[in-house]
Specification:
Elements: H1 2-5, H2 10-14, H3 24-33, E1 38-42, H4 44-48, E2 53-62, E3 69-74, E4 85-87, H5 92-104, E5 112-114, H6 119-125, E6 128-132, H7 134-141, H8 143-150, E7 154-158, H9 159-167, E8 171-178, H10 186-200, H11 203-211, H12 218-228, E9 230-233, H13 235-250
Parallel strand pairs: 4-5, 4-6
Antiparallel strand pairs: 1-8, 2-8, 2-9, 3-6, 3-7
Helix pairs in contact: 5-9, 11-12
Length: 262
């Protein structure tokens, strides 16, 4: 979103786009009911809402460790023996990936309990916890403090890294998509790709901006934006999405979905 929020292009783009900010799942719903033309959506919405068009070029993905998607569990319990998982419901896509991984870990029917993203409370109620986004990053920052405070040994599993280990595929969280019937001309695609590239050229400024808003060091944010997140919807990511949708349909996690060619 760099060009949409910063000079010199923000004013020009404001004349062509009206920007509303909300969760990715709400973006998808607005595309489905006609209240929006373009949105950053979780990839599970592509299967749930047929007819959405994927904008070429941009994604939110990880090809290794992502750090902002964690499965945390007691060290004494192997994955196959976990009896319950407390799940932050902030991302249905992450939970779908987790479901598929539990199939591969030999524990396909473990129940997910929806709970607010508080690690201590989650582990009081369940054998494991799924943390997504800022709560996951904060949990990693507080990991050593928690050991000193509780004396409890926990295992912190990076879900994107686990997915890559299990499948050889990248972890794709979100893509830009357009509502059915919207004409995606080349200029729209270029606006988003150029904004992505200009954002990547200003990572240090973004890290400084966001470190003032959250209790995470600027260096951690900078490393996260440069090393953990992949932003280009390349062939590797497209293949990762095809693999994800195929496995999700096979396991009954999502309805069947065939990605459009091209």
């Amino acid at each position: 979103m760099w060009d949409f929020e910063h000079r010199p292009l923000a004013r020009e783009l404001a004349g062509r786009y009206e920007i509303d900010r909300m969760s990715p799942s709400e973006c998808a719903q607005r595309l489905a009911d006609g209240r929006a033309d373009i949105g950053l959506i979780p990839i599970t919405s592509l299967a749930a809402l047929p007819g959405l068009q994927i904008l070429p070029g941009c994604t939110i993905a990880s090809k290794g460790r992502v750090r902002s998607l964690l499965l945390v569990h007691h060290a004494r319990q192997p994955l196959s023996d976990l009896r319950s998982v407390a799940a932050d419901t902030a991302s249905r896509t992450t939970l779908a990936y987790a479901r598929l991984m539990f199939h591969k870990w030999g524990n396909p029917d473990v129940p997910f309990l929806p709970l607010a993203a508080d690690l201590d409370r989650m582990l009081d109620r369940a054998d494991a916890a799924i943390l997504i986004g800022d709560p996951a990053l904060l949990a990693l920052e507080e990991r050593h403090n928690r050991v000193e405070r509780t004396g409890e040994e926990l295992i912190y599993r990076d879900l994107a890294e686990e997915w890559r280990t299990l499948t050889g595929l990248p972890f794709i969280s979100a893509v830009w998509a357009a509502a059915p019937g919207i004409s995606l001309d080349e200029s729209i695609t270029e606006d988003f790709i150029h904004s992505r590239d200009h954002g990547l050229a200003n990572i240090e400024a973004l890290a400084q901006e966001w470190s003032a808003r959250m209790p995470i060091p600027e260096s951690t944010i900078c490393n996260y934006l440069t090393s953990n997140i992949h932003y280009v919807l390349d062939e590797d990511c497209l293949e990762g999405m095809r693999g994800f949708f195929g496995m999700a349909a096979e396991c009954g996690v999502l309805p069947p979905y065939t990605m459009p060619v091209g």
